[in-house]
């Protein structure tokens, strides 16, 4: 293999890669490697260009002993820390030297951390009602054994706690099903105004005043009706729970010729309330699982903190996006933007 061939192979790899020839010069580096080092390292002596002692040691050993070498390296560029698994393999066909590849471990680390946080959150959310139920059982077995009135009250509270656990488990199952389907495009033809009308109707029966301003015209989209129903139910339910008590909620639809971020024609469906609004520091985290601004208030209202996380996954399955705008003491606007095609 000559230098041009090595360069072509390295360019085709989907991870940062470099080739150090026997004379210790870097004779090829792909764009990914160049962006890691923020420097065109081609033509430079590897020990001067790469700087990390662990990397230099591994490359040196590979050049010397012609054996595979690995190292974990911590790289800092523009205040961002990245962890890489570096692998060196000696090649002695044609041009001789060391092929170095870098595997980014940062995301894996983040995923493991996210997974740990998720398990801890689920355990905590389940343990709270479970502890309450155990407490009631203990009291009913002990001091309140013969107290009929207490029995009634406690059974009612136990039923509420077990309903809460049931909701949590259903939401978790729903979330994992939606995540598994996220790459499958929905294929039903859904008339968004009809769907919204059904959701709105169910809230009107609960004495919630909803003002509809359904202005979109071409409103049939390729979608999953049940899932979009779930999204709008949660957005309207949130507006009821966290908005101003008794004040009307406005549901609006609008066509956009080209959404600025999705870059396709889309339909915007917004749910607006006139509640206390949301501090901007919370906005980027609202769609995280179990993230609540006021956990106590959410739990009191029967929330699991999964509604917006589920909504976000459903909307992304529809290749759309969720936009959240809010002004303190004026209210919030949650908009699902769904592409028309
Ligand atoms: N319209 C809103 N106004 C103010 N805060 C809101 C609004 N909608 C959501 N939030 C905040 O975002 C948090 C997350 O909402 P999300 O729908 O994910 O969970 P939840 O409503 O608490 O529980 P669930 O949806 O499972 O019933 C809420 O707990 C609340 O703090
Ligand atoms: Mg909710």
Q: What radius of gyration results from the CA coordinates?
A: 28 Å
Q: For the record, give the distance between the C-alpha atoms at the N and C termini, rounded to a whole number.
A: 47 Å
Question: Pairing-aware structural class of the strands and helices?
Answer: alpha+beta
Total discrete domains: 3
According to CATH, the fold-level topology of the largest domain is Heat Shock Protein 90
Strand composition percent: 15-25%
Provide the CATH superfamily of the largest domain: Histidine kinase-like ATPase, C-terminal domain
pLDDT averaged residue by residue? 91
Count of DSSP H/I helices = 10
Uncertain runs = none
Shape annotation: extended
CATH architecture assignment of the largest domain: 2-Layer Sandwich
**Biggest sheet: strand arrangement:** 2-1-5-4-3
The top level CATH class name of the largest domain: Alpha Beta
Concise synopsis of the structure shown:
It contains ten helices and twelve strands. The protein is α+β, with helices and mostly antiparallel strands and about 350 residues long.
Architecture overview:
- Helix 7 (192-204) crosses helix 8.
- The chain contains ten helices and twelve strands.
- The protein has helices at 3-12, 31-37, 46-50, 53-65, 106-141, 148-181, 192-204, 225-242, 295-300, 307-317; strands spanning 17-21, 26-29, 69-77, 80-91, 97-104, 188-191, 210-214, 220-223, 249-256, 266-272, 321-327, 331-339.
- The longest helix has 36 residues, at 106-141.
- It has three domains: 3-104, Beta-Lactamase (2-Layer Sandwich), CATH 3.30.450.20; 106-181, Helix Hairpins (Orthogonal Bundle), CATH 1.10.287; 185-341, 2-Layer Sandwich (Heat Shock Protein 90), CATH 3.30.565.10.
- Helix content is 45%, strand content 24%.
- A hairpin with a 5-residue loop joins strand 4 and strand 5 (97-104).
- With 341 residues, the protein is α+β, with helices and mostly antiparallel strands.
- Magnesium ion (MG) is lined by residues 234, 237-238, 303, 307.
């Amino acid at each position: 293999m000559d230098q041009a061939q090595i360069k072509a192979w390295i360019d085709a790899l989907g991870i940062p890669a470099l080739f150090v020839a026997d004379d210790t010069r870097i004779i090829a580096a792909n764009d990914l490697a160049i962006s890691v080092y923020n420097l065109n390292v081609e033509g430079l002596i590897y020990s001067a260009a790469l700087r990390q002692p662990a990397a230099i040691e591994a490359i040196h050993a590979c050049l010397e002993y012609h054996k595979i070498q690995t190292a974990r390296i911590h790289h800092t560029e523009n205040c961002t820390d990245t962890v890489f698994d570096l692998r060196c393999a000696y090649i002695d066909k044609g041009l001789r030297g060391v092929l170095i590849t870098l595997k980014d471990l940062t995301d894996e680390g983040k995923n493991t951390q996210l997974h740990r946080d998720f398990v801890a959150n689920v355990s905590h959310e389940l343990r709270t009602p479970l502890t309450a139920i155990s407490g009631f059982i203990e009291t009913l077995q002990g001091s309140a054994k013969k107290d009929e009135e207490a029995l009634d009250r406690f059974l009612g509270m136990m039923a509420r706690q077990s309903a809460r656990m049931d909701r949590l488990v259903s939401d978790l199952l729903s979330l994992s099903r939606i995540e598994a389907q996220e790459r499958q495009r929905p294929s039903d033809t859904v008339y968004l105004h009809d769907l919204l009308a059904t959701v709105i109707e169910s809230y009107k029966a609960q004495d919630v005043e909803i003002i509809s301003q359904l202005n979109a015209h071409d409103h049939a989209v390729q979608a999953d009706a049940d899932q979009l129903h779930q999204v709008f139910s949660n957005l309207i339910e949130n507006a009821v729970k966290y908005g101003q008590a008794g004040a009307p909620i406005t549901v609006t639809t609008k066509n956009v010729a080209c959404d600025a971020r999705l870059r396709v024609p889309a339909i915007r469906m917004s749910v607006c309330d006139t509640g206390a609004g949301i501090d901007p520091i919370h906005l980027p985290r609202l769609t995280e699982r179990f993230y609540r601004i006021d956990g106590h208030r959410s739990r009191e209202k029967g929330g699991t903190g999964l509604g917006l996380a589920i909504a976000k996954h459903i909307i992304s399955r529809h290749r759309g996006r969720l936009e959240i705008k809010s002004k303190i003491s004026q209210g919030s606007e949650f908009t699902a933007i769904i592409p028309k095609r």
